[in-house]
Give the backbone structure.
Amino acid sequence: MGVTLIHGANATLDLQSVLIRIGWETDLSCDVDASAFLVNEKNTVRQDQDFVFYNQTETSCGSVSLEKSSEQDKYRFRVLLNQIPKDVSKIVIAITVDTENNTYHCGFLKNLYVCLTDLSGEDEKIRFDINNLEKEKALMLCDLYRHKDDWKFRAVGQGYNGGLEAMASAFGVCVSSSDESEKTTEPVITTNRRRTPGEIWREKAETLQFSLREFLPQIQSACENQLNESNTRMILDKMFMDVLGYSMDEIKAEQRIQGRKVDYVLSLNNQDMIACESKRAGLPLRDKHVFQASSYGAYSGIRWVLLTNLLTWRVYHVSANDRVTASIIFSVDINQDFSIEDCEKLLLISRYGMARKGRLERLRNEVSALARENLIQAMLTDDVINKVRLVIKRDTGCKFDNDTIQQALEDILVH
């Protein structure tokens, strides 16, 4: 059994690789995030990568990494002290409570603790219990700091009322509230420069990936046990909220209009955006499964359709001219190998992505441009045919007119 510290106390570390475990109890579903700041002697970060949080879960050197825990702990920081850069004098560990909801604060967290163990998480060396919390939005829990040739752990427990922004600013992190190209009310945290739209999008995808990994065990278990549609939807409800970011009142279940029905409609700012058809977990999807949702979408004016069985997520665009057609835009499988590129696609149908309508429409245009019929049409233009004729003459010495080349291409491409 290790040592238990009180506020302000410290202890010398006898390990070079440690795990910082953070946990609490609460009756509320408020969002709480953990972060770490690697600071120099001036108590400021040196660069972007010295700030570890939900959008950047590891330092560039790999010395500090953050992960959510599925056990009693809520978060864990893996710290390799022998890899910490020499000009970093302290690592500050903190938590912040959702600042968008003024109701929530650290006082709602009960039995809050920080403990330091070896990397196995079992050999507890230091513990710090934090009680009697007030209405702070952010809390510095502890820090690891250099002392001569050693590292020490200090129990801090210092609150900040301004939340993550106030704490980040205190450590020299520049907080930007919007991007010039993509207006957003969500703060973008940087240190040296403004994030580009592409960097912001990538960070959002990484956050989605982090959230999605938490659902992997549930998805795999649901598929293995062949959950019925009702139980599948219980998981899907949570994924719409916790992964895609929709609020409960933006997720409309069992919608009907003029005899047409759909399992879900996802809305944004009181506008219906996506019609969703849900199938039993793991059930092989067929294009015919999308008919009901696309029919509902065409009648109600919704142009985007999601078809999913938890494991596979397919997004279609609905057209309603002479007849209703649904053209697939992308398909993503949620398994152990899903990539950040997969998450960037799923981000398109998240609340954040649907608020930027141009992105999903742009992908649809790109998919359409590379469709078979468009490629054939491009290959049969005079410019391409003439180029093919010249290449054949150069490589074989055979001379043909453009009509002969066109007929040969049509035989290959069309028939």
